[in-house]
Amino acid sequence: MNALTSPAKRPSGLSRLTSTDIAEFVAGSAIWAPSVHNTQPWWFAVHGTEIALRADRRRQLGVADPGGREMLISCGAALFTAKLALRALGFTADSLVLPDPADPLLVACLRWRHQAPLTSSEELLFRQVPRRRTHRGGFGPAPLAPGLLDLLREGAARDGASLRVARNEASQAALADVVGMAELVQRLDSAYMRELADWAPPPGSMRADGVSPSSYPARPERTSPDFPGRDFAHGHGWGLPSSSPAGPARFVGVVCVLTTADDRPADWVNAGHALQRILLTASSYGGAAALYSQPVEISWLREVIRHHLGDGSYPQLVLRLGTVIQNAVSVRRPVGSVLRFGDGPPPAA
Ligand SMILES: Cc1cc2nc3c(=O)[nH]c(=O)nc-3n(C[C@H](O)[C@H](O)[C@H](O)COP(=O)(O)O)c2cc1C
Predict the structure, then answer these.
(1) Considering only CA atoms, which of 18, 22, 20 is closest in space to residue 89?
(2) Class for domain 148-322, per CATH?
(3) What does pTM read for this prediction?
């Protein structure tokens, strides 16, 4: 969290809530979804009991993500969170994904309806929204909770995605190699690195977006096999001190690939929806995730992973899952800057 923006507080007196209260709470929760480079590429337009979740192309990564795939994955994660926030208020939510082919930035229309009691697992999941953080480094020695991986796989399947676990050392090493190769290629690409630097503000910055030094370790924690992270500090050594006084955590955790059967914009939204379900579920069982999109941003390396998976499915993201004491802090723009009521113009970028 940053000084500017804190997680949305659940309003009291549910029976007297106005649509403004509801929309502010829903959008104020959705903004805590993960997004590529913390670009937060979304805004919300409210009409009566309907919230339109819109992608903000001005926040798309022109070099890393020219097709907008990662932008829509990010919006899919916000969609899952928005729906969960409606459930946290006791509403049921109807949603239509990419409802208007003539308006590809309209990611989803969300309408809230009658009250239905919140289940304890929904409540637990919702509580993770502000707590969950992207982890960057090794994991601790404690294994994931028994049965969690099955739960995550079932959740991904419900969203039309697949969580594929690298079961043996050879598969893990192959994925680590592909991530390492992508990282090398991107570090040699000056346009790519300029864009990364634009989204990685220095310490003390008041920016409410981008990957801040409070969210990554100053010294990369190596795992075996090693999955090199992005150099958000671009050589300045910014970042958090080592996560544990006993030395950095070193465990690689469970290595997975999030995939979809097809590769259209709706699949990307589904992948983001599944991603946030996975991350919040893992968090509710004491787990955390490190994310790697470098290899899926380079088409030939994405093909290498696809070939490795062997069933024609499309990799959307590489993940490592494990347990760790989180110390990362992330930032968000205030909800007022991404929310519009009626037919007003889009908010400033
Ligand atoms: C599509 C997508 C791709 C991402 N790729 C990476 C990545 O390659 N490396 C990384 O460290 N984090 C990655 N992230 C995590 C974001 O940087 C992170 O969500 C953002 O900085 C906000 O921080 P938070 O997740 O802790 O709230 C990705 C997130 C998304 C949704």
Answers:
(1) 22
(2) alpha beta
(3) 0.97
